[in-house]
Fold each of these.
Amino acid sequence: MPATAAPRIDRLSVPDASGHFGPYGGTFVPETLMAALAELEAVYRSARADPAFQAELRHHLSEFAGRPTPLYFAERLTRHCGGAKIYFKREDLLHTGAHKINNAIGQALLARRMGKKRIIAETGAGQHGVATAAVCAKFGLQCVIYMGSVDMERQALNVFRMRLMGAEVRAVEAGQRTLKEAINEAMRDWVTNVRGTHYILGTVYGARPYPEMVRDFHRVIGAEAKEQILSREGRLPDELVACVGGGSNAIGLYFEFLEEPGVRMIGVEAGGRGIRRGEHAARFAGGKLGVLQGCKTFILQNPDGQIELTHSLSAGLDYAAVGPEHAFYRDLGRIEYAFATDDEVLEAFQLCSSMEGIIPALESAHALAHGCKRARALAADKIVIVNLSGRGDKDVQEVARLLAKRE
Ligand SMILES: *Cc1c(COP(=O)(O)O)cnc(C)c1O
C-alpha cells in the first residue's frame, strides 16, 4: 500500500462512546434488553481494567484452552503456492477446535461476575455452541443452546457433544431453520429471562457492547502472532489473511496490527456458488446498509429490505450480515475484502490436508484459498500470515459427501 493512501488509525478510539463504528453498530434492541446491555457493558469495563480478572482470564486461556497457539511455517504449501512465506496462526489447536473458546471463556467469567447462573447462546455450525457448553460445564453454569433444526441435522455430532457436556439444545423450527432464526430465538429467551441469564453471543456482532467486547477477547490472537513473527523473522508480516463470518477471528488477528501501515489486511468472505442473489454470503460483494439483530451494518437483502437467502458450503460463514467494525475499516480502506468460492475452498481444504498434515475447518479454508493466491502474487522475501481459525474434523463427512457427488 503506498504511504499516501494509508489512513490514520486510532484503534483504541473505536467504537465511539455511543457504540458506533463510524455509521455502523449501535444498539437496535427491544427496550426490555437495554438495562441488561448497560449492566453487561459496565461489568465488562470494570473487568477489563481489573488486573485480577485479566490474570484469571489468562490462566483459563492457558490451562483450559491451550494458549498460546503456535505460529507455524507452512513450508510445503509455501513452495507449492510459489512466492511469499506462508505462516499459519494455529487457532485450530485450541480446545473444542476453534478460536471461539477465547470469547466463551471471557463471557463466562463476566456472567459469574454478574452473578448470572444461566447461559444461553445461538449456534450455526455448532462450534460456538460446543465452546459455550464446555465453559458452562467447567464453571458450573446452566446452559441452553438455540440451533436451527436444519443445522442440527447437518451437525449432529456437535449436537451430541453439547449434550454430553450438559447443555440443553433447543431446536428452532422457524424460517430457514438455521443461524438467523436461532439468534432470534435466543434474543426472545433473553428478553423473557433477562434477570438471571447471560447471552454469550458468538461473534463481533449484535448490539453494543458485544462487537467491542468479543473483539477484545480475541485480541490475544494478534498479540501472540505479532510477538511470534518478530521473534521468528525479526520483522512484521506483509499481509494478514483471515476468513470473515461475523468477523471475530479476523479482527482478533488484525487488531494489534491496525496501526502498522506496512501490514496489509484482507478478509475473505464466502463466495459460495458465485456472486448471484441467494448463492453466496459475501456481504461486501452485494450487501447494503441495514439493521439486523441489534446493529447497523452491511447486509445481504432484497430490494424491499428483506434478508436475502445465503449459501456457503461452510456453515460458520453462512450469515447475511457482517460485524460493524469490518464495515468501518473497509470504508477507511484499512482492511480489504475478497471472497473464495466453494470450489476454491474444497481445493484448499484438500491441499492443506495433503501438503501440511493439517485438516483445516472449511471456514479457515477460505482464508487458505485466498492466502495462497496472495503468496503467489508476492516475492519470496515477503511474509503472509493466514489465520487457521479452526480444525476440520467437524467437516470431513460433509467434504466426503461433496467430493463423492463430483465423481
Ligand atoms: C465460527 C467460525 C468462523 C466464523 O466466525 P468469525 O466470527 O467470522 O470468526 C470461522 N472459522 C471457524 C473455525 C469458526 O468456527
Amino acid sequence: MSDVSGSELRALMARVPSVEKVMASAEFAALLAEYGRTQVLGAVREALDRWRAGAQSGDASVSALDVARLKSAVEAALRQRNESRLRSVFNLTGTVLHTNLGRALLPDEAVQAVMKALTQPANLEFDLSTGKRGDRDDLIDELICELTGAEAATVVNNNAAAVLLTLSALASKKEVIVSRGELVEIGGAFRIPDIMSRAGAKLREVGTTNRTHLKDYEEAIGPQTALLMKVHASNYAISGFTKEVGLDEIAPLAHARGLAVAVDLGSGTLVDLSQWGLPRETTVRETVEAGADLVTFSGDKLLGGPQAGLIVGRRDLIAKIKKHPLKRALRVGKLTLAALEPVLQLYRAPERLTERLTTLRLLTRAADDIRIAAERVQPALQHAVGERYAVTAEPMFSQIGSGALPVDVLPSYGLVVRMADGKRGGRQLLALEKMLREMARPVIGRIADDALRLDLRCLEAADEAHLIEQLKGARA
Ligand SMILES: *Cc1c(COP(=O)(O)O)cnc(C)c1O
C-alpha cells in the first residue's frame, strides 16, 4: 500500500475512459457481439467501480486504466460468469453409480434420442393413429411390461416420487404394514416413515429390527389396512440372528385378505446380474412373478437409464395411480422418455448388454483391463503430482453404488498416491486432492489409509486419453 496523493488520484481518474467511449471502441466490438450489450455494460461498470475503489483506497497496484486493460478484465469476468456450473468430471471414486456425480451414464442410443427430442417436435401426447390427444405413458408402457412381465406400467420423476405417488393413491388415510427391518433412509432425505406421512398414510410397523415373522404381518392386518409393503434394504445389511419374510409368503397372505403388496425395489434390475459374475439381485420380473401387485424402482441405478421412477404392476392399481393428481405433478418430461426407451430396448438383446449398456459395461469391466489402463496413466499422474508424491498402480475394490448391493465390492485397479518420503502427509494429500479437483475437468478421487486413491474402472478409452493429456499439462 502506498498513498496516492490527491492530485495523482485526480489525474488517474481524469484519464479513465468514459463508459460510452469504451462501449463504442473497436476493442469492445467482439465482446458486444458475443455477450450482448446488457451484460457487457454491466461488466464494464463493475470493472470501473472496482478500479475507482482501488484507486481511492490508495492501492499501489492501481495504475492508469486504458481501454485494452479494461477489455481483458471485462472479458475474463464475462467468461467466468458464463461458464456452465454443471461440469464434466472424471469419476475416479470407484463408485460406478455415484449419486452425487449423476449416477448412470447413458449409452449412445439414448443420447441420439435425446438430441432428437430436444430439437424436433414429437408425438409426446399425440396419438398418431387417431390424430387425437394421447398419453405419454403409452410411448413406453408396453416395452416396460414386456421386460418385467407386469400388466401395466407408468413412469414418474424418480423412485422417491414413485413411492410417494403409490402410497398417496392407494393408502391415503389408511394403514401400510412395513417390517421394522425395512424402514430405510436413502441418502438425501428419503425416509420411508416420512414419505408415508407425506402421502397421508399411516405406517404400521411390525416385527423388530432384526427379525420379522409372517404372523407379525398377519396380526397387524385390520380394517384400516390398505397395503403390505416391502422395501429393499438398499444401503445396509442386517446380519446375524435375522429373519425376513419373503414376498413368496407375504403375497399369498395379502391376497387371501383381499389386500395388495407393494415392493420398493430401489435399484430394480431387469436382468440377473450373476450371469456376469456380479452379485445377485432379485429382478423386477421375479418380484412381479412372486406376487407383488406393484413394484417401484429407479431408472438411473442398475437399470442404467435416465433419472426416473418406474411403477409396474396390476392394471387396476396402475390406473388408479395414473388418475391421482400427484401423477401430473410428478410426471416425466420428453427428454426422460426419449432416453428411457432406447435404454430399455437394449434389454431385448441381453447377450449384448455388457457391451452396449454403459452401466453394465463399467460394472463388468475386468480388473486386468483396468490394471493396464492404470499403468498407462501412471507416468502422467506422477508427472503432474511431482516428486514429493509416489504414484503406484495397485489393486483395489470398486462399489456399485446408489444403494445397490452395499456389501459387495468389485475387484478393480487404480492409482494410489502416497508421500514419497513415507510420511502420512495428511495436509499434503488434502492439497493434492484439491489440486486434482480444481483441474479444468475436475478429477474426483478419494482419500483413504493415508493415500489418495483413483479407481480407474469408470475411465473409458476417450476419457483416458483426455485425462492423460490434462495431467501432462499440469504440475503440482
Ligand atoms: C434409491 C432408492 C430410492 C430412491 O430412488 P430415487 O430414484 O433416487 O428417487 C427409494 N427406495 C429405495 C429402496 C432405493 O434404493
